[in-house]
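Figure caption, in words: inputs first, then the predicted bound structure.
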Amino acid sequence: MAKLVCSKCDHKESVPMHCGKEMRKEGNSLVCWMGPGCGIQSIPEHCGAQMDLVE
Ligand SMILES: [Zn+2]
Ligand SMILES: [Zn+2]
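Bound structure (zinc ion present):
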C-alpha cells in the first residue's frame, strides 16, 4: 500500500481511495485511477508542506 509521508516530521497516512483503489499522484494532485474526470483532489499538506507519496 502506498503512503503519504510528511518529509518534515515523518508523519504517515494512508492514500485516499477512489472507486475502490488508491488515488495516484499526478502533478500537484491526487487523481482517481479512472482519470481526473472521475476524482481529483489536492495532495494533503503536513507541517505546511505537501506530503510525499511513497510506494
Ligand atoms: Zn473515481
Ligand atoms: Zn509533518
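The longest strand covers residues 3-5.
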